[in-house]
Write a structure and sequence with these properties.
Helix content is 0%, strand content 50%. By secondary structure, it is mostly beta strands. The protein has a single domain (4-102), classed as Sandwich (Lipoxygenase-1). The strands form 2 sheets. Strands 1, 4, 5, 7, 8 and 9 form a 6-stranded antiparallel β-sheet that branches. Strand 4 (37-38) and strand 5 (45-54) form a beta hairpin. The mean pLDDT is 94.
């Protein structure tokens, strides 16, 4: 498992937004994004990044404490120690107080021509 230095996230909200702060769990610890830009209302886009500098045994986007949050798309960029940055996109999901979505994706395996 690689050490995750930083990750950036872009969340496109669907029909139902949320007023709660956007949080993620890293290894079971809930953390709010403190440097977010944009919004999480219907049709809005939220962007943030976080410097982790840890091994992500688990990394998940947490649902709001009240109501439901429809997400159209989640785009992430990861920068792990000793690897090039890589991007991942996840599709639609609805989150609430009882749900979260796994946003951790291991770096792609190196490829080469044979």
């Amino acid at each position: 498992m690689p050490k995750l230095n930083t990750f950036s996230i872009k969340i496109e909200t669907g029909e139902r937004g949320t007023e709660d702060p956007v949080k993620f769990n890293i290894n079971g610890f809930p953390i709010p994004f403190e440097n977010g830009a944009g919004g999480t209302g219907p049709g809005q886009v939220f962007e943030a990044s976080y410097e982790i500098n840890s091994f992500p045994h688990s990394l998940a986007l947490v649902g709001p404490e009240k109501g439901a949050w429809d997400i159209k798309k989640i785009s992430l960029e990861y920068l792990c120690q000793e690897s090039k940055p890589y991007s991942v996109t996840f599709g639609e999901v609805t989150l609430d107080a009882t749900t979260e979505v796994n946003i951790w994706q291991e770096p792609p395996l190196p490829s080469f021509d044979v």
